[in-house]
Specification:
Layout (H helix, E strand, L loop, with lengths): L5 H14 L6 H17 L6 H20 L3 H38 L17 H16 L9 H9 L12 H4 L11 H34 L7 H32 L17 H4 L5 H12 L9 H19 L3 H23 L9 H23 L3 H11 L12 H21 L4 H7 L2 H18 L12
Helix pairs in contact: 1-2, 2-6, 3-4, 3-5, 3-6, 4-5, 8-9, 8-16, 8-18, 9-14, 9-15, 9-16, 11-12, 12-13, 13-14, 14-15
């Protein structure tokens, strides 16, 4: 079920009615939310709800036992059971075909011909997100950073809370479980701004990502031939805008829907295209994933505590895993590896060169931000391309090494994409230290109303309600 669908609107209205019924016990309201979450997920493929139950039951009972066991061997065994259960399901459904294909290619390098039956595996939507969310619970208990949840209803709702179930934000146990303990209902102000964020998220997804950016992006990345430099760059910039508006749009919808119910979800994006450097970028892009990888992978590996060489190795390995988390393809690994190399180079430069005072001026920071945005767009080529040949052909086209490149985009499409990208980057810089709710709440009511009405009219005009969010595939 998609936020940008009529079925979700009907479900959301029903959930709101049940959630705000007077004198209905909080336990019943939580049960309603849990059932709505299962219905929301089952709309894609009902049998995959069983996977949610498996993850829920494994981590609930492992967590209860793990906290009170003191023997090192038993604690590691219980943690291993949770890791095996969750990562095993993720490996089978998401990486089974990928591993098999690479195994066949490895045999071929040794001169062995092997043609296995093609596995018919359907990827459960959002499995990477809820797997990392449940793992954070078990890992926090293993570290004794949190106590086990005693209420199965609350824990099941933590795993399956429908606003953020399939594409995040990935919420830690201490950020969501305590919210289920007491009755939650939004005040008028919170409900109002929740609806505003839901509208903003849908506008970003439907109008900006799907109507304006998706077409040119698909044309360029789907082209079987080399392109002229302008078309190639416009297609990459279109995808840069598409993936931001699509994913940040989902997160904004999720935060808005949760707010309407009286719950708080953390920000997942903070204007990433205004980042100055890649450390700054990953503090602004997909924040819940980058912080998860930092706290549960990079720091346990040693972080920056074991000397420069291991620090660089830890950075690169963490980003390679982050790339593989996004998809079962080597192009995603290269995307993550490039970000790892960028982070390594940034750390090396900061340690070796003292920044001159002029580099801290606003104009210099803006220049560094544009350079960061340029490098980010290079990585998006590998993220979006179906294979390396497509990525290489597009990179050649972008940098003028394809003199016979074809022109496939209409002039109007080029102008529209470039206009939206310029406005997007400008908005990120203007808002880089602000929040959209802070600006909207301080604006005159008539200005907010006009902006809100304009977004609603454009959503209705676009008449797009069935395009899946990009990150559902991850």
């Amino acid at each position: 079920m998609l936020f940008n669908s009529l079925s979700f609107i009907l479900l959301f209205i029903l959930v709101l009615v049940l959630h705000y019924l007077p004198r209905l016990p909080w336990k019943i309201k939580k049960t309603n939310l849990l059932l709505a979450s299962y219905l929301f997920y089952a709309a894609w493929n009902p049998p995959f709800v069983i996977l949610l139950w498996i993850s829920t039951l494994i981590d609930f009972f492992v967590g209860r036992r793990l906290y009170y066991v003191h023997g090192v061997a038993m604690r590691r065994l219980l943690l291993g059971l949770s890791l095996l259960g969750n990562l095993g399901l993720l490996a089978f459904f998401k990486y089974g075909g990928f591993l098999l294909d690479n195994f066949v290619q490895l045999l071929a390098l040794g001169g062995i011909s092997y043609t296995p039956a093609k596995p018919d595996i359907i990827l459960p939507v959002g499995i990477s997100f809820y797997t990392f969310q449940t793992l954070s619970y078990t890992l926090d208990i293993y570290r004794r950073n949190t106590t086990p949840e005693k209420n199965l209803l609350d824990f099941a709702l933590y795993v399956t809370f429908f606003p953020q179930l399939v594409a995040g934000p990935i919420v830690r146990p201490d950020g969501l479980l305590p919210q289920f303990k007491e009755p939650k209902r939004a005040g008028l102000n919170q409900f109002f701004w929740g609806l505003f964020l839901l509208t903003l998220g849908l506008f970003m997804k439907i109008v900006l990502a799907d109507v304006i950016m998706a077409g040119p992006s698909d044309q360029v990345f789907g082209a079987p031939q080399a392109l002229n430099s302008l078309d190639a760059w416009v297609g990459v910039l279109a995808f840069s805008g598409q993936i931001f508006f699509d994913f940040a749009g989902y997160s904004t919808c999720a935060i808005g829907v949760a707010a309407c119910l009286g719950f708080y979800l953390p920000d997942n994006f903070r204007y990433p295209y205004a980042a100055v450097g890649f450390s700054d970028f990953w503090q602004r892009w997909h924040i819940s994933l980058s912080s998860w990888l930092r706290d549960y992978l990079y720091i346990p590996l040693g972080g920056n505590r074991k000397g420069p060489r291991l620090t660089y190795a830890n950075l690169l390995f963490t980003m390679l895993i982050g790339g593989l988390w996004h998809g079962a393809a080597w192009t995603f690994v290269v995307w993550g590896g490039l970000h790892g190399l960028y982070l390594m180079a940034e750390r090396l430069l900061r340690g070796a060169v003292q920044a001159p005072p002029w580099l801290k001026t606003g104009l210099a920071q803006f220049g560094l931000g544009l350079f960061t945005f340029f490098l980010v767009n290079i990585t998006w080529v590998f993220f979006r391309a179906q294979d390396f040949s497509t990525a290489w052909r597009l990179l050649q086209s972008m940098f003028g090494f394809a003199p016979e490149g074809a022109k496939i985009l209409y002039t109007l499409s080029i102008l529209l994409v470039l206009t939206v990208v310029v406005l997007m980057v400008a908005a990120h810089w203007i808002m880089r230290r602000r929040s959209v709710l802070g600006v909207a709440s301080q604006s005159p009511y008539w200005a907010t109303g006009i902006g809100w009405a304009g977004m609603l009219l454009l959503i209705l005009w676009a008449q797009k309600t069935s395009e899946s969010f990009i990150y559902f595939q991850f």
